[in-house]
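Dear U.,

For the methods section draft, I wanted the exact inputs and outputs in one place so we can describe them consistently. I've listed the two proteins in the order they'll appear in the manuscript figures. Please don't edit the token lines directly; just add comments below if something needs changing.

First protein:
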Amino acid sequence: MNRSILISLFALLSFYMGHAQQTPFNVQLQPVDIQGLGGLQSFAFGTHNGKWLIIGGRLDGLHMRQPFASFDEAGHNKQLLVVDPVAKKSWSAATSELSVSLQEQLSSTNMEFHQDGDVLYLVGGYSLSASLADHVTHDKLCAIKVPEVIDAIISGQPFANYFRQISDESFAVTGGRMLKIYDTYNLVGGQKFEGPYNPMGPNHGPGFVQEYTNSVRRFKIIDDGVNLSVVHLPSFVDSDQLHRRDYNVVPQIMPNGEEGLTAFSGVFQKTVDLPYLNCVNVDSAGYTPVNSFSQYYNHYHCPFIPLFDEFGNEMHNVFFGGIAQFYDSLGILVQDNNVPFVNTIARVTRDADGNMAEYKLPAEMPGLLGAGAEFIPLDGLPVYENGVIKLNALVEAETMIGYIYGGISSSARNIFWINTGSESTANARIYEVWLNKNSSNTHTLNTQSNSSFQLQVFPNPNNGVFSIKFQVKRSEPLWLTMADSSGKQVFHEKLENLYEGEHIIRKEIKNLTVGSQYTVTLDSDSERATVKTIVQE
């Protein structure tokens, strides 16, 4: 029996960010329709002179759960698309003039990609390979000359000469993200998936092989415009903290002024099929898990915008919708372990001391949108070398900074187990993204995001087993209590000899009353965390 928990946070924990956080900006979305432009999700893109080159992705909505129907060939995008959002025009060309190897990679989903100057680099991607008669993760690196391909598609000319491709097993990755830190490429997380998808597991039906990379694969691309090669560097490997895919990895300006990346959330935790809530910072020297912060509102890949406030030394990251384990309902944080589609727009800010907090914006996505969509920034925006927007250089009260395109549009929050293929679609609408620096609308702090204990309560999928997860900053006795709405204790336990780090306490709690309210409290000598839950079938 599936259960969800409505979590309302009461008297939650002392927390100090160093100064009161004022609303730095707000965002607005304005729809744009381009006649003839179809929907697409989980694609790659490059830009040149205001035009977009869109490659790969899926033409359908959320993938089916049956192996014979999931990620089928009918959903492959076998067209190269060019979009001019200002002129509201689009062009397309079939990939059939390319080699079979290029055709198959460029019709895949969840490729990793990064544009360096005029060249768009693509790696990996997952799709049904006709030549191999199986679903595969492509072990390819592809280099594309974006201006030449855009011009060729618009003018109806051949474009095969503007594509190059090499094979390398380390690039057999899907669902990761590829970004640069200075001159080094970082392929962060992701997985190698071989065979047809099956939610029942690798040993059911035709079976599959799934291997998380558990790493940041680092390399340099050597490209003289003709010859393409790679120099591999030592990877950062962590089977716990880097065991992530289908998520957001966002370029950063770190508090020390250096370039870096932050890997936000992702799936799945090794101990439970739920998203990670912490994040991981990556820089040139290594990686650092951030366990003092939890992100609740945007867990799977969705459009994101990084903006740096140089005057305040604050790094802002804005996320748009997608899929998440939590969403806000009339001020109540709803925990849904089915991990539904959401419409939340949220901001995660890192201050000058490295402290992080999450805020819900008053604006929302116009529907259950965002999963597998992309933010495409305007050419010519004031940005740092790694693409982070210079917030202080946006001097106008309102500035249009880019567009959101594509992604999955869902008809309901939870459709996975009822999905017949008609409950969701690939979104065709484009949205202008406007930044308003003078808005008086406030952003609501998610108090749970920066609590010390990071307390969570969630049910195991069966037999009324509750898991209570929390962080320990120093070894000291703690008291864990659960009580019903009358104050009667369901259990009370002293926890001793706890090591620093994450803990999960599992309790089998019998005879809970559906619809009743229960309070879980975690106490130390100096701090208390309280979560109230309503158990619903």
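Second protein (the one for the lower panel):
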Amino acid sequence: MKVVILDDYQDAVRACGLLGMLEGHDATIHRDTVKGTDALAARLKDAEAVVLIRQRTELSEELIERLPKLRLISQTAGVGAHIPMEACTRRKIAVTAGGSPNPSTVELTWALILAAMRRIPAEMEAMKRGKWQAAPMGRIVQGKTLGIYALGRIGGRVAQLGKAFGMNVLAWGREATAERAMKEGFEMAKSREAFFEACDVISIHLPLNKATRGLVTGKDLGRMRPDSLFVNTSRADVVEDGALVAALKAGRPGFAAVDVYEDEPVLGGRHPLLQMDNVVCSPHLGYATYETLKDYLGLAIGRVVAFAAGKPKDVVNPEALA
């Protein structure tokens, strides 16, 4: 099969020793991202199978209609809104997906929390300029209140580690969050307003869908204290467009740590958060570890090989095979 792997920024397929799995297939690996239907149609015009790394590229319905040779989309981890499932099924394009739970995003969330609370990036930059303890003093997390918005698999583990650090954990979210909070002994906030007002650190762990897009508003952020920290390692678009930058400029919250952006990749330093001294930024590293990408890509490439052999597996739209 003609296989195209998109958005492999860190050359993970080769670095993880997975290229050999595609022996006998015509594989092309792209390490950059292109945007727009025309550019993607040109890149994928001969593809019979496309491997997607999470949601780095969105495949529109218009694009799908322009790819007559495409037979398979192999998605690393879960399917999201970036794949037009109805169009794929109608066009008899199989979509495969699935991956093992991993701690990568949980660990990065805590790396960002500690880096921001202790002013580590600022102190590193100061040392490079020949200075010593030049940033404002950092703060400990012990005894502070950690707010978890959406106490799912990732949010729940972040909460558990917060408890291990001696933090008070306060949760907010839908019914599933309330049920898990009760089961695991975490306190639910009395109201949405109280949640944003009470927490020293708020970490967002919402999936992106129609219901959650823009769910965290500027009004929510404005309730946070001037010394509080807002952390987002989930999806940028769960926050109202422009609200975080505006809130930080207004001083509530006082700090942010962010791994996700509205338009990725962010190149050339062109993002307002990168110009702010009270923000710690990372380039969507949540799941981007050797172990996680080896697992995700190994499974995704394995599904391509199985499909080519006439033994499709992990197909989320089996109607496409009929």
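Candidate sentences for the figure legend, describing the second protein: The mean pLDDT is 98. The domain at 104-281 is CATH 3.40.50.720 (Rossmann fold).

Thanks,
Y.
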